[in-house]
Design brief:
3 domains; binds magnesium ion; 22 strands; Protein-Tyrosine Phosphatase, Chain A; UDP-N-acetylmuramoyl-L-alanine:D-glutamate ligase; alpha/beta; about 25% strand; about 35% helix
Length: about 475
Amino acid sequence: MTALWTSAEIEAATGGTASAPFEVTGITFDSREAGPGDLFVAMPGTAHDGHDFITAALQNGASAVLSRKPLHCPHIVVDDVAKALESLAKAARDRLDPKAVVIGVTGSVGKTSTKEALAAALTRSRKGHVHRSVKSYNNHTGVPLSLARMPRGTCFAVLEMGMNHAGEIAGLTRLVRPHIALITAIAPAHIENLGSIEAIADAKGEIFEGLEGRRIAIIPDDTPQRDNLVRAARGHAEEVITFGRSDNADISALHAVDSTGLGSLVTARLLASELTFTLSQRGDHWISNALAVLAAVEAAGADLAAAGLALGDLGGLKGRGERHVIALTGGEALLIDESYNANPASMAATLKSLGEERVTGRRIAVLGAMRELGAESEREHRAIAEPALVAGVDRLILIGPEYDGLAAELTGRIAVDQVADVSAATERLTASIAPGDAVLVKASNSIGLARLVDALAGGRTPAGQEALR
Ligand SMILES: Nc1ncnc2c1ncn2[C@@H]1O[C@H](COP(=O)(O)OP(=O)(O)O)[C@@H](O)[C@H]1O
Ligand SMILES: [Mg+2]
């Protein structure tokens, strides 16, 4: 296998000193992920210091260590491990072929979904290696890691960038130096830190500051922040492309029908053509993500027909819409795992999709709190009433005091159980789930609703499709 990095290259990039020449084929800062061929990066953290996990990483098979101090194994000593990882990221970006296309993805919601779908679409066009960030590695450590993992010879790179505070994306985008910068959607996530939706849009717009080469900005049209984003993009981009449901958008959906119950049939108007494709993922938010993907594929000069095929067989992402069939006595129920993330926009979008599921039983939603809403928290949790009613939800299992207002508002109109924690919610759901039911499970990741999903669906294969991971 070709080396990802030789020790000489790492020395040159970081100014560090290697114990002896070696090569690595992978790189990680999580000792649990480390395996043969990997460089373990002993990152200092706020809670833990990676240096305490070197032994664990080596036991898991790691081949070498990037460390602050000399070790009795192949290693490179550097003054500052976090800075060294950033230097490696810069070197990875610098060594890319000038013809390669780097696409940066940010937004309030839909980053990982869009990143995965875009990488799948580009992979289908078989033009060469497609590199993407894994999971949601999108912050000041995740982005450098994702870049440092980029193999030489990469043709397309899709990198997710996230933020909690203003100024973060500005730093990340200067490292990524995207040719194409895509914003998926603007919504009140992290409003606690940023103060207003305008400030959120400004912070996302920082992604354009790193644009280089062909410098294309891709922006959601369906947001009140559209004009602000276009203005931010114009300062840095040569071309601005908008996508969205309305005709005004450059890339739009001419028709979208969800008649099959198996996803949507969409005809999209692109810049230079039209494309009709099926979209395996359900919900309006996925139509939006698909339009963003096609905008990026067209901007990158990749194969649109191949992208259309890829959108037709995207698997569900764990925690972001993965579907599980639960075998029960007398039949089956459907469990939709949205346990990874929740904010007002994604809550409304997925409740709407639940309403569109064909069910012979009931529609049940198990909802945990949406985090980081600050002063808006109470109002936003209560505001779930409308999408829940419109979706025809039959039963709600609500976790935590954040839902006091919603429970009060809906009691008597929908069967509502309010419980203290995930264990209690798991018990309620297990006791009440019946054949034919469709269950939406959604909360911010920190609530831990993944445990409920594991308890009900653990070990079972996702419905219909292989998980896209
Ligand atoms: N374009 C979108 N608009 C609104 N909600 C979305 C969109 N795309 C995905 N979602 C919802 O948001 C959740 C989180 O999606 P994800 O792609 O992980 O976002 P991020 O990476 O930005 O945190 C998904 O489970 C889905 O419910
Ligand atoms: Mg993400």
